[in-house]
Fold this protein.
Amino acid sequence: MLKIGISCYPTYGGSGIIAAELGKILAERGNEVHFISYAPPTRYEPFQERVYYHEVEVPDYPLFEYSPYSLALASVMADIAVYHKLDLIHAHYAIPHAASAYLAKQITKGGFKTITTLHGTDITLVGNEPSFLPITRFSIEMSDGVTAVSRYLAQRTISELKVDKPIQVIYNFVDTEFFRRRDEAPCRSKFADKDEFILMHISNFRPVKRMEDLIEIVDRIRKDFKVKLLLIGDGPMRSRLQQICREKNLEDNVVFLGKQTCIVDLLSIADLYLQTSQTESFGLSALEAMSCSVPVISSRAGGTPEVVQDGITGYLEDVGDIEAMADKVKHLLGNNTLRAAMGKKARDRVENHFSADKIVDQYEAFYAKALEQRL
Ligand code: GMT
């Protein structure tokens, strides 16, 4: 059994969710897991056996215009690694976690191994930004083991950051027992009339999600179908999107639900899941929808085709091709049998390729190789 440190962005986004779920399952399997971050990760369970949380506090000194979180993180990582005799630290999202882990390893004179998992914008946006590129590349190359959540992301890391290091693809996963469609969906009548279809999207409302396209799609299909688009989450684009809905008189068709915890109940009332991102290394929310037997209509962005099979578990169209996506929505809303069949295939695909058990096995095997220096 291993003693594992996990560092991640704790509050929003799929990388923190994956880090927390991974830690939970590793602890269930008998490992000791230490989360190291500035807040407890979303979905972290404080009373679980063998799970610990260590908060990183950044000193507030008048001289600091910018608080040195990365250094504070490295200090806590080094301290926890020595005190709890960690075998490894697993950094989720390269910046700053992989850089801090490298520094902590130097402080402790190499007392533990470092694993870095690349999630998406740590490479495609932040890592590609000229001022961050050298430190991102360095932190990745200095990690003992590197994984990426899709083939697409691994390839982009090698081609754009010129990283000279093998990158193992380990896909994201879901707990298929928990993310399972609930037949008694309690809230459907709260959100939609009986004869109304429910479309759903869950994200952090950042520009990269192109959520204006979602609203355009609803605008194009509302003449033919009675629909409600439920938007779950929050972020910088929310007020702009609300304004667009008002301008287009779509307030009754697009409902902003904010951040929600009862995601499975909500996904269980969805007829379709929509995702229109500009770039998406994987698309964890789409995977969670598929696990709840909801077909996905998405832009063909980044690693999405590795998750959603075009014509089988949903449909993929070019980024920004609103017309084509709206046509696919209409096609599926107009065909209940096809929609149900695609939902079932989506569920099967998750069970066969993205279940937590299968993927956590891969992480454990990867850790073992890193510890034996076989990578
Ligand atoms: O990169 C981000 O946008 C944030 C990041 C996160 O922390 O949620 O999302 C990325 O990681 C997720 C988990 O691996 C992936 O499912 C998302 O596709 C990916 N986001 C993008 O590539 C835009």
